[in-house]
Amino acid sequence: MISESFEYHVPKTIEEALGMIGEFGDESKVLAGGHSLLPMMKLRLASPKHLIDIGRIGALRYIRESEGQLELGALTTHFEIESSSLLKSKCPLLPETAREIGDVQVCNRGTLGGSLVHADPAADWPAAMLAVEAEMVARGPHGERKIRARDFFVDLMATALQSDELLTAIRVSPLPARTGDAYLKLHHPASGFAVVGVAVRLTLAESGSIGEARVGVTGVGAKPYRAEETERLLAGKSPTAKRLEEAAAHAADGVDANSDLYASGDYRKHLAAVYARRAIQRAAERAAGR
Amino acid sequence: MRIQVKVNGTAFESDVEPRLLLVHYLRDVLDLTGTHIGCETSLCGACTVLVNGHAVKSCTLLAVQANGAEITTIEGLASDGKLHPLQQGFWEEHGLQCGFCTPGMILAAHQLLSRNPHPTEAEIRKGLEGNLCRCTGYQHIVKAVQYAAEKAATGGQ
Amino acid sequence: MATKYLGERIKRKEDPRLIQGRGHYVDDLKLGGMAHLAFARSPHAHARIKSIDAGAAVATPGVLAVYTGEELKGQVGFVPCAAGLEGLKIPDHPCLATGTVHYLGEPVAAVVATSRYGARDAAEKIEVDYEPLPAVLDMEKALVKGSPRVHEHLTDNTAFVAKLEAGDWNAVRQDASLKVIKQRLINQRLAPASMETRGVVASYSPGEDTLTVWSSTQIPHILKTQLAIMSKLDEARCRVITPEVGGGFGSKLNVYGEEGVACFASRKLGRPVKWIEGRRENMLATIHGRDQINDLEIYAKPDGKVAGFRCRILASMGAYHQLLTPAIPTLTALMILGAYDIKNVFVETVGVFTNEMSTDAYRGAGRPEATYIIERAMDLVAFELKMDPVEVRRKNFPSSGKDISMATGVVYDTANYEKPLKKALRLAGYNRLRKEQERLRKKGKYLGIGVSTYVEICAMGPSSRMPGGGWESGTVRVEPTGKVTVLSGTSPHGQGEETTFAQIVAEQLGVSFDDVTVYHGDTSVVPMGIGTFGSRTTAVGGSAIYYASERIKKKMAKFAAARLGVKPGELLFRDGKIETSDGAKSVPFGSIVVDAYSAKTLPAGVEPGLFEQFVFEPPNYTYPFGAHIAVVEIDEETGEVRLRDYFAVDDCGRILNPLLVDGQIHGGLAQGIGQALWEEHVYDESGQLLTGTFMDYALPKAGCFPWFHTANTETRTPVNPLGVKGVGEAGTIGSTPAVVNAVVDALRPLGVRHVDMPLKPEKIWKLMKGNAGDGGR
């Protein structure tokens, strides 16, 4: 319940934050909403000497549309995403995912950026980020770079973000025509995290067959992934129940699945297939309705 | 570190250790012990308070993060000695037994009704997902929230 | 009899303070000079302590003292066990481990510091060198000859063996017409997890030589006695106060080592010491519930009538006995026949030591296990004989409705098992549900309907059967102004008896409910009592208060009779008056109170004043019963169980306040359903706890439940003057088997006859895939 002592820093700007990250290096942790980091600190599983609270950098908290892209500041909270009318109309997968995350209080404080950087293998956002091919915008001492979602999640609790970098924004493309998306998960009965979560963005061709489908999966392995074989099997096919099932059956191909008290690796793989089929089905129905 | 907060309408200024949790600040420094601590992992919601109008778990917020904020705790919910409709609802509908989760439960319900004044039963249950109660089986809590929603709809009459 | 308050839906007196955050739980207490206590705990299930280095902790600023088990030796007594069973082994249970740790989380050292944060910091700095020892976690392996022993000085891991046998087993064995059904059931370990963890403030005053202890407890009086013994203090100089208690569910029906250490520290340091348990500590080191393995043998006649029932109970004690640890499974044996007239019974109960936290009373305490066993058994009979589970139950109900002598030796007070069953079947639309199930099965869908017709034992109980006595005290004092003070020996903590008791007394004395105030939980204010557990507070404590108010009435009637010139027996107490039944002659209640205190004219043989006490000794337990029906749907692809509907018809005797009865049932259902579907406390093979936080231990949330449809029947008991039976545990006891029966019923087309709890989706999925063995494990 009680963390170890630390020094607390409150940068006002991104530049100031980067300066502090550079100065304190490995002895520091960046605090956003605090809903991943503070629980770890309270259990003394993390004990940074310096805590850099970026929570007051207003420039990191926004949802906007620019140059045909949607951009979310890293400090945007789950609730802000859930309730954004812009996102509801242009990228409904994000509000739909936000609704499945935690409880009201967690959604009020927890941030998109904080969750992504924490990279919990059972977190919800990564699946959606993969399905919409989000771009992570990272700022470091040498400027800004963009990281594709599929390159961002490296391993268990590890991302492509360098230790001197700060995740500042997330960019996603709005939902194209004849496209639908969906996020479905099995909630862990205690933590509420995803035992398995599948996010899908699916575009139908004019012919009614599937143009492109992107399937992001979380909870199954050490890191979230795109179900590439499933995507390949869907491309160009008409979305019949049988096709979807055949494709979804490969949603966990080659994945070294997690096993815990609640669900074995085999079961997780099975769930991935079932939830993938259901999410694909729902996304296809939505695509047909647009 | 020096912080300034306004709690239930009263301004406070305190020097706090950075690691001090908001819940301990409220309870141990300001003596507002109506906010409780039920777990260590941000799950039970007993410590829920409103920070700038948003329900948050005060065990997962440092007091220094709340610097400058306006905070409402259970002690600040009744006004002029008149119970808030939610408090009335919990009393009328037997929405509490041991009462330990109740302050947090009421403030989470407060957030729910502020965003959705006419929630369905399912929406109430979802809105209270972040608050655990071991006594009531939740049904009377749902009724308490329904009571308050109705009361608010009829202008508190 | 017309009543004004009894049987009415009356809002609680407790609530105004609690809904405004103005109640005071133990952690809300602040005393001048108060220090804080924190513990260093064992990270091993079983290990020898080679050395403890507290140097860094002692050197931490603000640290007042560090104690280890060695320092407490001879100064603080052992943690007590009150259970008295023949041949019971009771290992010494020091407040802080000495030499060896026997379970994960056992307190090893204690730090006292000037601040909460400082105490934690210092506790983290205590270095203990351990030599790990083999840990005993599996009860069956623990009983094998040559198994590592939990306590090296004991010959084996058997804590006790108890046998209960009745009937003619030769005849049963020779009856070839009987179908023998065998099944193993596992009743998993659970965490009581009251929302408020444990906590204690001990304040020793060196000048007065008095010890005052504020503890979050269900048993202030017993705690006072035991702490005095442990602390070697004059009991008359000890006082226990229970502030608000944030739930207990049995887990605070105990005396814990940490309380002994807090008293010791306060005495040593001469200042108040507070200890507030963290949630992780609570999961590790507050008693656990259940944890039994049950092997059943059912001997059923072809028509569904059960002729004989055998069960072997392996009950995990954990490493030590807490207050009632070994007594809990004996209640399982006592109630193992449930609501059924079975003449031949054999139960062998074996208490087993393991390197785990102690088990003890958790809501229901041994009876949920019994009900689970017998209610699963009824469904097993239905499964094997291809009968409807309702029919099997009806075949086995006793014919009598009163004083039913069970083969287990207990005598059920009053019974009418058909009545709630009929009501529940109607409420649920049972026949319609069966037709829907038939339809859905044809489509490959799984709908399950589960029934449980439980009976439980409560209102504990006659002193002859209770380790520390089963009586209860009540005191009623009419103050000189006419207001009424009630002192209750029981100490409710959420059940709402400040309200119920006020109803009883207001009804009795004919005064306003608002004029009655109930106090409990302060041993210096309230006469000795036993405590709140075993669904006894209203039935036993309420009866004491009822009789105490009868004594008040008797006395006041003498004063009033003298004034009115009538016989005392002619007078009624109603609406603030004492009057003749026709209302012709009356005198205000308040004026008689003045007579009693002014004592100017005393009727012959009457003392001044109006304070009366009664100690009620119940002649028997009570046996509430009911019928529960659960309806579940199972996702045929994933095995996820959705509880679609729940119907509960409970008979808890006379209902004094339907609002509170509903509340008790709802809460009980949530816990019972929680065991069936989600909750499990799991140690791994090395004795590490895999479910040590609410991130892993699934406490049910608001969204887990459908709307509970509840109803009651009212069969009064003659055991107490109120006719109430008790309702605190009924919901928990009845619901667990109803849900499991429903899930197994859903899977019946697959030939599944049992699944062990909790009914996690993966188990069901494996059964549906057809590659899991019996039990889904």
Number of strands of chain C: 28
Number of helices of chain C: 20
Assign the CATH superfamily of one domain in chain C: Aldehyde oxidase/xanthine dehydrogenase, a/b hammerhead
Number of domains as seen in the coordinates of chain A: 3
- Quick one: CATH class of the largest domain in chain A? Alpha Beta
Helix content percent band of chain C? 25-40%
Number of strands of chain A: 14
Uncertain regions spanning at least 5 consecutive residues of chain C: 772-777
Which architecture of the largest domain in chain A would the CATH scheme give at its second level? 2-Layer Sandwich
Sheet of most strands of chain A: 5 strands, antiparallel
Overall geometry of chain A comes to globular
Defining traits:
heterotrimer, B: 157 residues, alpha+beta, Ubiquitin-like (UB roll), DNA polymerase, domain 1, 2 domains, 5-stranded mixed sheet, 5 helices, 15% strand, C: 777 residues, Aldehyde Oxidoreductase, domain 3, Aldehyde Oxidoreductase, domain 4, 7-stranded mixed sheet, 20 helices, disordered C terminus
Describe the protein in words:
The complex is a heterotrimer of chains A (290), B (157) and C (777). Helices cover 34% and strands 26% of the residues of chain A. Chain A has 290 residues and is α+β, with helices and mostly antiparallel strands. Chain A has three domains: 7-53, Uridine Diphospho-n-acetylenolpyruvylglucosamine Reductase, domain 2 (2-Layer Sandwich), CATH 3.30.43; 58-172, 2-Layer Sandwich (Uridine Diphospho-n-acetylenolpyruvylglucosamine Reductase, domain 3); 179-287, 2-Layer Sandwich (Enolase-like, domain 1), CATH 3.30.390.50. The longest helix of chain A has 24 residues, at 265-288. The mean pLDDT of chain A is 97. In chain B, helix 2 (85-92) crosses helix 5 (139-153). Chain B is built from five helices and five strands, in the order E-E-H-E-E-E-H-H-H-H. The N and C termini of chain B lie far apart (46 Å). In chain B, a hairpin with a 2-residue loop joins strand 1 (2-7) and strand 2. Chain B has two domains: 2-76, Beta-grasp domain (Ubiquitin-like (UB roll), Roll), CATH 3.10.20; 85-153, DNA polymerase, domain 1 (Orthogonal Bundle), CATH 1.10.150. With 157 residues, chain B is of the alpha+beta class. With 777 residues, chain C is of the alpha+beta class. Among the domains of chain C are: 31-133 and 193-285, Aldehyde oxidase/xanthine dehydrogenase, a/b hammerhead (Aldehyde Oxidoreductase, domain 3, Alpha-Beta Complex), CATH 3.90.1170; 134-191 and 288-359, Aldehyde oxidase/xanthine dehydrogenase, molybdopterin binding domain (Aldehyde Oxidoreductase, domain 4); 462-616, Aldehyde oxidase/xanthine dehydrogenase, molybdopterin binding domain (Aldehyde Oxidoreductase, domain 4), CATH 3.30.365.
